Amino acid sequence: MNNILMQRIVDEVVFRLKQRAGKTLVLTVLQLRDASVQESVHQYASLQIRYVDLPLLRQLAENETSDRAAIQIHEALAWGMHIQLSLQRHFLNAIELKTLARLPLSWCDEQGQPIYLHHDRLLSYVDIAQLSSGILVLQRKCCVTALAREAAITRNIQLIRQE
């Protein structure tokens, strides 16, 4: 293989990776069950799943793979795709916060506002300082420092405590 051919191949790969980097595939849970992650990973860098339901969240938290959508999410993570789950705000009190917060997923509500999951028992300024506006879900028994509460107000972060 000569240098010119090698350079052309490298340029083509770089071009395709740059095209893929900005693309997001948006699917509902029903569409995800029918989609092929292996085909999507070549065209899209990230996957946004809309209208996520509680049974799927429970399966993700328990690492259960009886649902095709859960299998697809795990497969997409294995391929290195960035995954964002969109869920309704009224589900925030019902999700398994500790387990889901540890997964490499990002979250948003139905309007696209970011949701952050905090699984520790203490919320300090350091936890708030790295966040932008959005919703921060806390455990029921999470202690919030005064400085963290003030920083949340300043940064337009809504604190929601699970019940």
Automatic annotation (TrEMBL):
UniProt GO MF annotations: structural molecule activity
Which InterPro entries does UniProt cross-reference here? PduM
Q: What is this protein called?
A: Microcompartment protein PduM
This protein's species is Escherichia coli
What lineage does UniProt assign to this protein's organism?
Bacteria, Pseudomonadati, Pseudomonadota, Gammaproteobacteria, Enterobacterales
Gene name in the database record: pduM
